[in-house]
Amino acid sequence: MSAVEVRDLVKSFGATRALDGANWCAEAGRVTAVLGPNGAGKSTTIECLQGLQRPDSGLAQVLGEDPWGASAEHRARVGLMLQDGGLPSMSTPPALLAHLASMYADPADPSALSARLGIDDFARTIVRRLSGGQRQRVALATALIGRPDVLFLDEPTAGMDPHTRLDVWEIVREQAAGGAAVVLATHSFEEADRVADDIVIMDRGRVRTSGPRAEVAGAKSLEDVYFSLTGRGER
Ligand SMILES: Nc1ncnc2c1ncn2[C@@H]1O[C@H](COP(=O)(O)OP(=O)(O)OP(=O)(O)O)[C@@H](O)[C@H]1O
Predict the structure, then answer these.
(1) pLDDT over 80 (residue 198)
(2) Which structural domain, as residue segments, surrounds residue 63?
(3) Which of 18, 19, 89, 132 could form a disulfide with 128 if both were Cys (CB 3.0 to 4.6 A apart)?
């Protein structure tokens, strides 16, 4: 059984068919990068896998369960970092992480996580006053605090400075090395090249190709494959 399974997934919003029969899987101990142009359906897929959207048809499964209406035990095994974070604006990062840690039976150590993600540098600043990149770091910490078996990251390094991006890529690899299935939606070829074992390329709600990075790209660069599959030809 794959940790994450998307089969014939369809989801429309009015006349917009955000997902049009998407198929792919993500495995434990591996990082899967989902690439695709704006509007390809990446976030909608992640929202279906979180149980935040109900698919019109098809299968979205995480750890063998349907995330729609899943139990609290199931949700505790899944970490999520969304594009806009959704963090409480008046909380300081340590207070937020301590609060979240108290909800899990066996959480990560909030202090160690803060130190690792450089959150200590702005520990006294409330979330509302943080820079975009600082907020991203806190959002990543909230996704990791429950030591998830499956980790969904939607454009995790967008807005981060180069040093922080390197740290985050290292942390992502560590999560997979520890056995987690990591699913990462990204627009960065560098990010996919550096961290991903497996690649999914989506366009217009469908999967154009998926599989191990070496098989998807072959002798070409990931960038060339991406452009040829998403309608613009190689550049
Ligand atoms: N709640 C919603 N209501 C209406 N349309 C939506 C909703 N969510 C997504 N869509 C539409 O579904 C399509 C897929 O959007 P989605 O956010 O999944 O794409 P994406 O691949 O994540 O894009 P991006 O790279 O810009 O983040 C888009 O046309 C978007 O406008």
Answers:
(1) yes
(2) 1-77+149-156+177-235
(3) 89
